[in-house]
Structures are given as C-alpha cells and as structure tokens.
Structure to design on (115 residues):
C-alpha cells in the first residue's frame, strides 16, 4: 500500500502561485505514475497532470503552460507548481499514485483562488 499526504494548498489571489506537495509513504522508485486531480464544487473530478516513472508528463488543456508536475524520487515527494492561477482553478486537489496496478489517493488539499 501507499499513503499519500498533500500539503501546500491555501488562498491565493488571481495571478498568484502555489506549490503543492505530495509525500508518499513508499519510495517513489517503486511507484509508476504520480498524478494530480482536482474536484470543484458541483463538478466531476478531473485529471490535472500526470508524470510517469521515466518523467513523461501530460496535462489538462486548461493548465498547460501554467502548471508543472515533478517528482523527487529521493525525497519520496511529488509536486505541482501552479502559476498564473485563475478563479476557475479553485478546487480540492488530490494526489494519486499508481503502485502495482492499484491507484492510491491522498486526502486532498483545498486551493482557493480569489481576490
């Protein structure tokens, strides 16, 4: 199993930046893909970004050029750098890990973009 703990959420003004962290209970060398999803009130959960073990990345169209996903295998941590934030980025952000063909989820961290 893998336990995931997100941190770094909060309130930020439009145009601002945040960096989310996802600490895993297991070495990331043993984990295939890491991802970030988000869910806004009244909306379905959606994929934001994903990074594989060989650091291939993919992003939702709505965040391309603004968000960057990365992973530090030595620190057992994945990150989501979010720049030029917009009010529509407001959501609970969840970290996921693909470990031995099972998906594991963190508890989520709230990101609110508002003036």
């Amino acid at each position: 199993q893998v336990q995931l703990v997100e941190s770094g959420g909060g309130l930020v003004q439009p145009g601002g930046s945040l960096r989310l962290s996802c600490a895993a209970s297991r070495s990331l060398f043993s984990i295939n893909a890491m991802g970030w999803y988000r869910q806004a009130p009244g909306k379905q959960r959606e994929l934001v970004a994903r990074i594989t073990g060989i650091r291939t990345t993919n992003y939702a169209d709505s965040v391309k050029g603004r968000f960057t996903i990365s992973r530090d295998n030595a620190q057992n941590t994945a990150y989501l750098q979010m720049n030029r934030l917009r009010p529509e980025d407001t959501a609970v952000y969840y970290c996921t890990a693909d470990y031995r063909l099972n998906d594991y989820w963190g508890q989520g961290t709230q990101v609110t973009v508002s003036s």
Notes: The CA atoms of residues 4 and 90 lie 21 Å apart. The chain has a mean pLDDT of 96. The radius of gyration is 13 Å.
